[in-house]
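cache lookup: miss for this entity combination. No prior model stored, computing from scratch. Input as submitted by user K.M.:
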Amino acid sequence: MLRGVLGKTFRLVGYTIQYGCIAHCAFEYVGGVVMCSGPSMEPTIQNSDIVFAENLSRHFYGIQRGDIVIAKSPSDPKSNICKRVIGLEGDKILTSSPSDFFKSHNYVPTGHVWLEGDNLQNSTDSRYYGPIPYGLIRGRIFFKIWPLSDFGFLRDSPNGHRFSDD
Amino acid sequence: MIFSGSLATALKIECIVEQTYGQWWQSLHRTMLRGVLGKTFRLVGYTIQYGCIAHCAFEYVGGVVMCSGPSMEPTIQNSDIVFAENLSRHFYGIQRGDIVIAKSPSDPKSNICKRVIGLEGDKILTSSPSDFFKSHNYVPTGHVWLEGDNLQNSTDSRYYGPIPYGLIRGRIFFKIWPLSDFGFLRDSPNGHRFSDD
Protein backbone atom coordinates (compact mmCIF):
# COMPACT_ATOMS: atom_id res chain seq x y z
CA MET A 1 0.00 0.00 0.00
CA LEU A 2 2.67 2.48 1.02
CA ARG A 3 4.70 1.84 -2.11
CA GLY A 4 1.57 2.33 -4.22
CA VAL A 5 0.75 5.61 -2.53
CA LEU A 6 4.34 6.85 -2.82
CA GLY A 7 4.48 5.83 -6.44
CA LYS A 8 1.25 7.68 -7.17
CA THR A 9 2.49 10.75 -5.33
CA PHE A 10 5.73 10.84 -7.29
CA ARG A 11 3.86 10.44 -10.56
CA LEU A 12 1.51 13.25 -9.60
CA VAL A 13 4.40 15.51 -8.67
CA GLY A 14 6.16 14.58 -11.88
CA TYR A 15 3.16 15.48 -14.01
CA THR A 16 2.63 18.72 -12.11
CA ILE A 17 6.22 19.79 -12.68
CA GLN A 18 6.04 18.77 -16.33
CA TYR A 19 2.86 20.67 -17.16
CA GLY A 20 3.81 23.56 -14.90
CA CYS A 21 7.00 24.00 -16.90
CA ILE A 22 5.14 23.85 -20.21
CA ALA A 23 2.56 26.37 -18.99
CA HIS A 24 5.30 28.67 -17.73
CA CYS A 25 7.13 28.55 -21.04
CA ALA A 26 3.88 29.18 -22.89
CA PHE A 27 3.21 32.27 -20.79
CA GLU A 28 6.75 33.51 -21.09
CA TYR A 29 7.39 32.93 -24.78
CA VAL A 30 3.96 33.20 -26.33
CA GLY A 31 1.72 35.34 -24.16
CA GLY A 32 -0.98 35.39 -21.56
CA VAL A 33 -3.90 37.17 -20.01
CA VAL A 34 -3.14 40.14 -17.77
CA MET A 35 -5.27 42.29 -15.53
CA CYS A 36 -4.23 45.92 -15.41
CA SER A 37 -4.89 48.18 -12.44
CA GLY A 38 -4.42 51.89 -12.06
CA PRO A 39 -5.50 55.04 -13.89
CA SER A 40 -2.31 55.79 -15.80
CA MET A 41 -3.44 54.36 -19.15
CA GLU A 42 -6.95 55.83 -19.34
CA PRO A 43 -8.88 56.00 -21.57
CA THR A 44 -7.17 53.23 -23.49
CA ILE A 45 -7.05 50.79 -20.57
CA GLN A 46 -9.28 51.42 -17.55
CA ASN A 47 -8.74 50.12 -14.04
CA SER A 48 -9.43 46.35 -13.73
CA ASP A 49 -9.49 45.75 -17.47
CA ILE A 50 -8.32 42.35 -18.67
CA VAL A 51 -6.01 42.36 -21.66
CA PHE A 52 -4.02 39.90 -23.68
CA ALA A 53 -0.26 40.31 -23.79
CA GLU A 54 2.13 38.65 -26.22
CA ASN A 55 5.78 38.09 -25.45
CA LEU A 56 7.16 37.30 -28.89
CA SER A 57 7.91 40.92 -29.87
CA ARG A 58 10.18 41.32 -26.90
CA HIS A 59 12.29 38.28 -27.75
CA PHE A 60 12.62 39.29 -31.38
CA TYR A 61 13.31 42.90 -30.41
CA GLY A 62 10.25 44.07 -32.37
CA ILE A 63 8.84 46.59 -29.88
CA GLN A 64 7.99 49.82 -31.73
CA ARG A 65 6.94 53.35 -30.91
CA GLY A 66 3.30 53.45 -29.89
CA ASP A 67 3.24 49.92 -28.48
CA ILE A 68 1.78 49.39 -25.02
CA VAL A 69 4.21 47.29 -23.03
CA ILE A 70 4.35 45.57 -19.66
CA ALA A 71 7.68 46.04 -17.93
CA LYS A 72 9.18 45.38 -14.53
CA SER A 73 9.07 48.57 -12.52
CA PRO A 74 12.52 50.16 -12.20
CA SER A 75 11.79 51.32 -8.67
CA ASP A 76 10.18 48.09 -7.46
CA PRO A 77 11.33 44.81 -9.05
CA LYS A 78 8.36 42.94 -7.61
CA SER A 79 5.71 44.88 -9.53
CA ASN A 80 4.96 45.52 -13.17
CA ILE A 81 4.08 48.69 -14.99
CA CYS A 82 1.97 49.12 -18.08
CA LYS A 83 2.84 52.11 -20.31
CA ARG A 84 3.15 53.15 -23.90
CA VAL A 85 6.51 53.36 -25.70
CA ILE A 86 7.04 56.97 -26.74
CA GLY A 87 10.68 56.75 -27.80
CA LEU A 88 13.25 54.11 -28.66
CA GLU A 89 17.02 54.42 -28.29
CA GLY A 90 18.37 57.50 -30.02
CA ASP A 91 15.04 59.33 -30.17
CA LYS A 92 14.72 62.93 -29.07
CA ILE A 93 12.16 63.37 -26.29
CA LEU A 94 10.59 66.67 -25.28
CA THR A 95 11.02 66.74 -21.52
CA SER A 96 9.90 70.24 -20.65
CA SER A 97 6.26 70.78 -19.67
CA PRO A 98 4.05 72.82 -22.03
CA SER A 99 4.10 75.75 -19.61
CA ASP A 100 7.88 76.18 -19.79
CA PHE A 101 9.18 78.97 -21.94
CA PHE A 102 12.32 77.16 -23.07
CA LYS A 103 11.87 73.66 -24.45
CA SER A 104 14.33 71.03 -23.22
CA HIS A 105 15.09 67.79 -24.99
CA ASN A 106 16.70 64.54 -23.98
CA TYR A 107 17.99 61.72 -26.10
CA VAL A 108 17.06 58.16 -25.15
CA PRO A 109 20.32 56.23 -24.45
CA THR A 110 21.19 53.00 -26.26
CA GLY A 111 19.39 49.97 -24.93
CA HIS A 112 16.67 52.09 -23.26
CA VAL A 113 13.08 53.11 -24.01
CA TRP A 114 10.99 56.08 -22.93
CA LEU A 115 7.59 55.16 -21.53
CA GLU A 116 4.59 57.35 -20.82
CA GLY A 117 1.07 56.54 -19.74
CA ASP A 118 -1.85 57.72 -21.87
CA ASN A 119 -3.29 59.59 -18.88
CA LEU A 120 -0.52 62.17 -18.77
CA GLN A 121 -1.93 63.99 -15.74
CA ASN A 122 -1.99 60.87 -13.58
CA SER A 123 0.91 58.68 -14.60
CA THR A 124 4.29 57.98 -13.03
CA ASP A 125 6.45 57.16 -15.99
CA SER A 126 9.72 58.07 -17.69
CA ARG A 127 9.01 61.75 -17.09
CA TYR A 128 9.56 60.85 -13.44
CA TYR A 129 12.15 58.02 -13.38
CA GLY A 130 13.83 58.50 -16.74
CA PRO A 131 14.25 56.02 -19.59
CA ILE A 132 14.22 52.36 -18.60
CA PRO A 133 16.48 49.61 -20.02
CA TYR A 134 14.91 47.49 -22.76
CA GLY A 135 15.75 44.40 -20.69
CA LEU A 136 12.96 45.23 -18.24
CA ILE A 137 10.23 44.90 -20.86
CA ARG A 138 8.25 41.70 -20.43
CA GLY A 139 5.53 41.80 -23.09
CA ARG A 140 3.34 43.81 -25.43
CA ILE A 141 -0.35 44.40 -24.85
CA PHE A 142 -2.37 44.44 -28.03
CA PHE A 143 -5.89 43.16 -27.32
CA LYS A 144 -8.50 43.89 -24.68
CA ILE A 145 -10.71 41.03 -23.49
CA TRP A 146 -12.80 42.66 -20.73
CA PRO A 147 -15.06 44.61 -20.47
CA LEU A 148 -16.89 43.23 -23.46
CA SER A 149 -18.09 46.68 -24.41
CA ASP A 150 -14.48 47.51 -25.25
CA PHE A 151 -13.47 44.17 -26.73
CA GLY A 152 -10.91 44.33 -29.51
CA PHE A 153 -7.56 45.72 -30.53
CA LEU A 154 -6.33 48.69 -28.56
CA ARG A 155 -6.57 52.24 -29.79
CA ASP A 156 -3.66 54.39 -30.83
CA SER A 157 -2.31 56.90 -28.38
CA PRO A 158 -4.56 59.87 -27.65
CA ASN A 159 -1.38 61.89 -27.21
CA GLY A 160 -0.22 61.77 -30.81
CA HIS A 161 1.60 65.05 -30.37
CA ARG A 162 4.13 63.34 -28.12
CA PHE A 163 5.51 61.41 -31.07
CA SER A 164 6.39 64.37 -33.24
CA ASP A 165 9.73 66.07 -33.08
CA ASP A 166 9.78 69.72 -32.19
CA MET B 1 -27.86 -8.74 -73.67
CA ILE B 2 -24.24 -9.05 -74.63
CA PHE B 3 -23.89 -5.31 -74.31
CA SER B 4 -25.33 -5.25 -70.84
CA GLY B 5 -23.25 -8.30 -70.02
CA SER B 6 -20.01 -6.63 -71.04
CA LEU B 7 -21.07 -3.47 -69.24
CA ALA B 8 -21.68 -5.46 -66.13
CA THR B 9 -18.29 -7.08 -66.50
CA ALA B 10 -16.65 -3.74 -67.04
CA LEU B 11 -18.32 -2.35 -63.99
CA LYS B 12 -17.28 -5.39 -62.02
CA ILE B 13 -13.70 -5.01 -63.15
CA GLU B 14 -13.81 -1.34 -62.26
CA CYS B 15 -15.16 -2.23 -58.86
CA ILE B 16 -12.38 -4.70 -58.24
CA VAL B 17 -9.73 -2.21 -59.38
CA GLU B 18 -11.13 0.46 -57.13
CA GLN B 19 -11.32 -1.91 -54.22
CA THR B 20 -7.75 -3.02 -54.70
CA TYR B 21 -6.54 0.52 -55.10
CA GLY B 22 -8.53 1.58 -52.06
CA GLN B 23 -7.10 -1.24 -50.01
CA TRP B 24 -3.60 -0.42 -51.11
CA TRP B 25 -4.03 3.23 -50.22
CA GLN B 26 -5.58 2.34 -46.90
CA SER B 27 -2.78 0.02 -45.96
CA LEU B 28 -0.20 2.62 -46.96
CA HIS B 29 -2.00 5.26 -44.98
CA ARG B 30 -2.31 3.06 -41.97
CA THR B 31 1.18 1.73 -41.77
CA MET B 32 3.71 4.01 -43.37
CA LEU B 33 2.36 7.51 -43.60
CA ARG B 34 0.46 7.48 -40.36
CA GLY B 35 3.40 5.87 -38.65
CA VAL B 36 5.82 8.49 -39.90
CA LEU B 37 3.47 11.37 -39.11
CA GLY B 38 2.66 9.95 -35.73
CA LYS B 39 6.32 9.48 -34.92
CA THR B 40 7.11 13.03 -36.01
CA PHE B 41 4.38 14.50 -33.86
CA ARG B 42 5.49 12.42 -30.89
CA LEU B 43 9.08 13.56 -31.40
CA VAL B 44 8.05 17.20 -31.61
CA GLY B 45 5.89 16.76 -28.54
CA TYR B 46 8.71 15.27 -26.49
CA THR B 47 11.13 17.96 -27.67
CA ILE B 48 8.77 20.73 -26.59
CA GLN B 49 8.09 19.01 -23.28
CA TYR B 50 11.72 18.47 -22.30
CA GLY B 51 12.77 21.78 -23.78
CA CYS B 52 10.32 23.55 -21.48
CA ILE B 53 11.49 21.58 -18.46
CA ALA B 54 15.14 22.32 -19.24
CA HIS B 55 14.36 25.99 -19.76
CA CYS B 56 12.56 26.22 -16.43
CA ALA B 57 15.42 24.39 -14.72
CA PHE B 58 17.93 26.90 -16.11
CA GLU B 59 15.76 29.84 -15.26
CA TYR B 60 14.65 28.93 -11.78
CA VAL B 61 17.45 26.77 -10.47
CA GLY B 62 20.68 27.59 -12.23
CA GLY B 63 23.08 26.65 -14.94
CA VAL B 64 26.61 26.66 -16.25
CA VAL B 65 27.89 29.93 -17.69
CA MET B 66 31.04 30.86 -19.54
CA CYS B 67 32.33 34.33 -18.75
CA SER B 68 34.41 36.35 -21.15
CA GLY B 69 36.24 39.61 -20.65
CA PRO B 70 38.81 41.00 -18.23
CA SER B 71 36.54 43.00 -15.96
CA MET B 72 36.35 40.50 -13.11
CA GLU B 73 40.03 39.53 -12.86
CA PRO B 74 41.55 38.03 -10.79
CA THR B 75 38.38 36.45 -9.42
CA ILE B 76 37.10 35.29 -12.80
CA GLN B 77 39.48 35.13 -15.75
CA ASN B 78 38.55 35.24 -19.40
CA SER B 79 36.92 31.98 -20.62
CA ASP B 80 36.32 30.62 -17.15
CA ILE B 81 33.30 28.38 -16.68
CA VAL B 82 31.22 29.09 -13.60
CA PHE B 83 28.00 27.89 -12.05
CA ALA B 84 25.20 30.38 -11.59
CA GLU B 85 22.12 29.95 -9.44
CA ASN B 86 18.90 31.84 -10.04
CA LEU B 87 17.05 31.25 -6.79
CA SER B 88 18.48 34.28 -4.95
CA ARG B 89 17.14 36.60 -7.57
CA HIS B 90 13.59 35.27 -7.29
CA PHE B 91 13.64 35.44 -3.52
CA TYR B 92 15.29 38.87 -3.59
CA GLY B 93 18.26 37.52 -1.65
CA ILE B 94 21.07 39.23 -3.57
CA GLN B 95 23.52 40.82 -1.11
CA ARG B 96 26.48 43.15 -1.16
CA GLY B 97 29.56 41.33 -2.40
CA ASP B 98 27.66 38.86 -4.58
CA ILE B 99 28.79 38.37 -8.15
CA VAL B 100 25.74 38.60 -10.39
CA ILE B 101 24.89 38.10 -14.04
CA ALA B 102 22.59 40.81 -15.38
CA LYS B 103 21.26 41.96 -18.72
CA SER B 104 23.36 44.81 -19.96
CA PRO B 105 21.53 48.15 -19.66
CA SER B 106 23.05 49.42 -22.89
CA ASP B 107 22.55 46.22 -24.91
CA PRO B 108 19.60 43.98 -24.01
CA LYS B 109 21.01 41.12 -26.06
CA SER B 110 24.14 40.64 -23.95
CA ASN B 111 24.85 39.89 -20.32
CA ILE B 112 27.29 41.42 -17.89
CA CYS B 113 29.01 39.85 -14.94
CA LYS B 114 29.87 42.15 -12.05
CA ARG B 115 29.95 42.35 -8.27
CA VAL B 116 27.23 44.07 -6.27
CA ILE B 117 28.85 46.96 -4.39
CA GLY B 118 25.70 48.66 -3.14
CA LEU B 119 22.01 47.93 -2.73
CA GLU B 120 19.17 50.46 -2.73
CA GLY B 121 19.74 53.25 -0.26
CA ASP B 122 23.50 52.71 0.06
CA LYS B 123 25.92 55.59 -0.21
CA ILE B 124 28.46 55.06 -3.00
CA LEU B 125 31.73 56.94 -3.35
CA THR B 126 31.71 58.08 -6.96
CA SER B 127 34.71 60.35 -7.11
CA SER B 128 38.04 58.86 -8.20
CA PRO B 129 40.84 58.64 -5.63
CA SER B 130 42.70 61.48 -7.33
CA ASP B 131 39.88 63.98 -6.78
CA PHE B 132 40.29 66.43 -3.94
CA PHE B 133 36.62 66.63 -3.04
CA LYS B 134 34.82 63.34 -2.50
CA SER B 135 31.40 63.00 -4.08
CA HIS B 136 28.78 60.49 -3.04
CA ASN B 137 25.65 59.14 -4.63
CA TYR B 138 22.80 57.22 -3.12
CA VAL B 139 21.56 54.12 -4.92
CA PRO B 140 17.87 54.68 -5.81
CA THR B 141 15.13 52.27 -4.72
CA GLY B 142 14.92 49.15 -6.82
CA HIS B 143 18.49 49.58 -8.16
CA VAL B 144 21.90 48.10 -7.47
CA TRP B 145 25.41 49.43 -7.99
CA LEU B 146 27.74 47.04 -9.82
CA GLU B 147 31.50 47.16 -10.22
CA GLY B 148 33.97 44.71 -11.72
CA ASP B 149 36.84 43.44 -9.60
CA ASN B 150 39.32 44.72 -12.17
CA LEU B 151 38.60 48.38 -11.51
CA GLN B 152 41.01 49.67 -14.13
CA ASN B 153 39.43 47.67 -16.93
CA SER B 154 35.74 47.43 -16.22
CA THR B 155 32.72 49.23 -17.66
CA ASP B 156 30.25 49.17 -14.82
CA SER B 157 28.01 51.41 -12.73
CA ARG B 158 30.76 54.00 -12.52
CA TYR B 159 30.08 54.45 -16.24
CA TYR B 160 26.35 53.77 -16.75
CA GLY B 161 25.02 54.37 -13.25
CA PRO B 162 23.01 52.04 -11.01
CA ILE B 163 20.97 49.41 -12.81
CA PRO B 164 17.44 48.27 -11.89
CA TYR B 165 17.25 45.09 -9.83
CA GLY B 166 14.92 43.65 -12.48
CA LEU B 167 17.84 43.21 -14.88
CA ILE B 168 19.66 40.76 -12.61
CA ARG B 169 19.40 37.19 -13.89
CA GLY B 170 21.45 35.10 -11.49
CA ARG B 171 24.22 34.85 -8.92
CA ILE B 172 27.60 33.28 -9.62
CA PHE B 173 29.00 31.42 -6.67
CA PHE B 174 31.13 28.51 -7.92
CA LYS B 175 33.86 28.13 -10.49
CA ILE B 176 34.09 24.88 -12.46
CA TRP B 177 36.91 25.56 -14.94
CA PRO B 178 39.92 25.81 -14.90
CA LEU B 179 40.34 22.99 -12.44
CA SER B 180 43.26 24.77 -10.81
CA ASP B 181 40.78 27.34 -9.56
CA PHE B 182 37.88 24.99 -8.81
CA GLY B 183 35.70 26.00 -5.88
CA PHE B 184 33.74 28.81 -4.35
CA LEU B 185 34.63 32.30 -5.48
CA ARG B 186 36.79 34.63 -3.47
CA ASP B 187 35.62 37.77 -1.79
CA SER B 188 36.21 41.07 -3.47
CA PRO B 189 39.83 42.21 -3.66
CA ASN B 190 38.47 45.76 -3.41
CA GLY B 191 37.20 45.53 0.13
CA HIS B 192 37.68 49.26 0.61
CA ARG B 193 34.79 49.91 -1.81
CA PHE B 194 32.34 48.56 0.72
CA SER B 195 33.17 50.88 3.58
CA ASP B 196 31.47 54.20 4.06
CA ASP B 197 33.63 57.27 4.04
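stored under new cache key. The helical segments of chain A are 2-29, 56-59, 126-129.
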